[in-house]
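Final report, closing paragraph on structural work. Over the funding period we assembled a curated collection of sequence-structure pairs, and we close with a single example.
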Amino acid sequence: MPDRPDTWAWLEQHWPTLYAGSLALIIAALRIIYGGGTLRRMAIEAPLCGALALAASHGLPLLGISASTAPFFGGIIGLLGVEGTRAAARKFFIRKEAS
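Its predicted structure, as stored:
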């Protein structure tokens, strides 16, 4: 890849997003393994957490949060899992709606 500088530039620009998705996927998989979950649950929930982290990392600037914090949020999403992230988002948006 050293002969393709545009690829390196793209990777450098999107590194926080890719890192957030990968981190969420890995943390979710390890959390499920540690908790004694099945291989099927890990194969479904870990990629869901990764995709959720990718989507969330693109929305951070809309909330006034720097995109460089995406790996932090990816780790949180992986740790909470899909259901925990859904509950936290619901709480956040209901509170914002009431304000």
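The chain has one domain: 5-98. The helical segments are 5-34, 39-59, 70-98. We thank the funder for supporting this effort.
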